[in-house]
């Protein structure tokens, strides 16, 4: 079992404090969801975990199995088993999907244990079939000219191919129709097991109808203010953030 620990995390961007003391512990075998209104720090948390240089950690700690994540470079975090699926994946012309994923897999392996071309292609075909992705997407340049739905499926394809220990999935449901949402959810559920944990950042209960979380966190004003099971997300859907904020005595700006 692996453990990702976030302790009293404070993060700023351009001298504005966004996270104001986030505490969260996640283990493999668990799916956690974070919900909260816009601007409350959900995506900032994902950026801080993966080491985005635009975000400054001013206080707090992040540990992966006791190792100090904040001392790692971005590529070291990925090799250690952390993965981020972002809201708006970058387009990288000149590098095919297949080339990118094989290089990413091999970067986590020793020189004498690189994945063979045949093993890679077999695995790639299997995972693309699971996500209903046409074979030609493997040879297209990374995200170049992809629709929003294709980019999201491609992020989940990378997740399935790389098999990280912990994945942070930042609004993977954004802009997806029901069919695409079901396919993306199928990919995440395929990974579910004792050796994998995920932190899903979302605004909507509808994603959690397909990926049932073990733990739901509500974030407001840069902190986690409430934690519960999957029923908490359903309650939020019914009451809204305003209702919860009044119960907690937190000022909520509906804008």
Automatic annotation (TrEMBL):
ABC transporter domain span: 4-246
Residue spans making up a coiled coil are: none
Drop me one GO molecular function for this one. ATP hydrolysis activity
SUPFAM superfamilies from the xrefs?
A: P-loop containing nucleoside triphosphate hydrolases (SSF52540)
> What are the entry keywords?
ATP-binding, Nucleotide-binding
**Which InterPro entries does the UniProt entry name for this protein?**
AAA+_ATPase, ABC_transporter-like_ATP-bd, ABC_transporter-like_CS, FeS-cluster_ATPase_SufC, P-loop_NTPase
User: Per its UniProt record, what Pfam families does this chain match?
Assistant: ABC_tran
Does the record's keyword annotation contain ATP-binding? Answer: yes
Q: Which NCBIfam families match?
A: sufC (TIGR01978)
Q: Of which family is this protein a member? A: Belongs to the ABC transporter superfamily. Ycf16 family.
| Protein name per Swiss-Prot or TrEMBL | Fe-S cluster assembly ATPase SufC
Task: Name the source organism.
Answer: Vagococcus acidifermentans
User: What broad taxonomic lineage does this protein's source fall under?
Assistant: Bacteria, Bacillati, Bacillota, Bacilli, Lactobacillales
């Amino acid at each position: 079992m692996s453990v990702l620990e976030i302790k009293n995390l404070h993060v700023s961007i351009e001298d504005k404090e966004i996270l104001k003391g986030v505490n969260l512990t996640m283990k493999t075998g668990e799916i956690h969801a974070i919900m909260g209104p816009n601007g409350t720090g959900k995506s900032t948390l994902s950026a801080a975990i993966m080491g985005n240089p635009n975000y400054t950690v001013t206080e707090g700690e992040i540990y992966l199995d006791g190792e100090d994540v904040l001392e790692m470079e971005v590529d070291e975090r990925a090799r250690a088993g952390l993965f981020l699926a972002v809201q708006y994946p970058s387009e990288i012309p000149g590098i095919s999907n297949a080339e990118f994923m094989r290089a990413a897999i091999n970067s986590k392996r020793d020189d004498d244990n690189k994945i063979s071309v045949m093993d890679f292609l077999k695995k790639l075909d299997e995972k693309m079939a699971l996500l209903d992705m046409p074979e030609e997407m493997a040879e297209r340049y990374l995200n170049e000219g992809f629709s929003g739905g294709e980019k999201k499926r491609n992020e989940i394809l990378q997740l399935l191919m790389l098999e990280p220990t912990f994945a942070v999935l930042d609004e993977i449901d954004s802009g997806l129709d029901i069919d695409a949402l079901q396919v993306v959810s199928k990919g995440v559920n395929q990974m579910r097991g004792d050796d994998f944990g995920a932190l899903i950042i979302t605004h909507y209960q509808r994603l959690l109808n397909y990926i049932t979380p073990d733990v739901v966190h509500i974030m407001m004003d840069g902190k986690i203010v409430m934690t519960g099971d999957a029923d908490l997300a359903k309650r939020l859907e019914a009451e809204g953030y305003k209702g919860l904020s009044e119960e907690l005595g937190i000022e909520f700006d509906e804008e």
